[in-house]
Amino acid sequence: MASERTILTSRRLVKVFGDDAKEFLQNLVSCDVSELSATSSAFGALLTPQGKILWDFFVFADESTDGFLIDVSAEELDAFAKRLAFYKLRAKVTVEPADEAVHVVAEWGDDLSADKPQDPRLAEMGLRYIATGAVEETASEADYHAHRIGFGVPQSGQDFQLLMCSRMIRTWTA
Known about the structure:
Blueprint: E1 4-7, E2 11-17, H1 21-26, E3 41-47, E4 53-62, E5 67-73, H2 77-86, E6 94-97, E7 102-108, E8 127-132, H3 141-150, H4 159-173
Antiparallel strand pairs: 1-7, 2-5, 2-6, 3-4, 4-5, 7-8
C-alpha cells in the first residue's frame, strides 16, 4: 500500500514559547517534553488536580521559536489556550494560537519518511507531524479516521462521547 497523507482540519495548534517554556510544560502536562526534537512528538494530557483528563493532545518541538506546538481539537483551541495561560503566573512564557497556515498532517502506509515524527500512540498509525504551507493530500480526513478506528485508537471528544452514549443506552435497555 502506498502512503496516504491528509491535513487534519479538525485539529489546530497552540504555540508555547519563551525562556521558561520547557519547564512550564514539563511541570504541567502528563508527558515528558524535555527530550522532544524535530523527529519526535509526545502524546499527553492536561489534568485536573484530581487527575481527570481535561484535554489530550500531541506536543511537538517548535525549532523556529525554541518552544512547542500543541495539537488540540480545533473546537477546543481557545479554551485550551486560555487554560494554559491561566497557569502561566510569572513564567516567561507566551501561549497563543498558531497561524492557520501551519497544519497537522497524518501520513500512513508504506514508504514513510524517517525524518518526521511517528504517532506516539501506536507505530501502525504512521506519522503525525506539522507542515507549513501547501501539503499534497492523497487521502481525506475521513480516510484517516477509518485508519485510526481500524486500529482501535480513539480520539477524545469524538469517540469518547459516542462510547459514553452507547454505554448509557446499554444500561437503560438492560
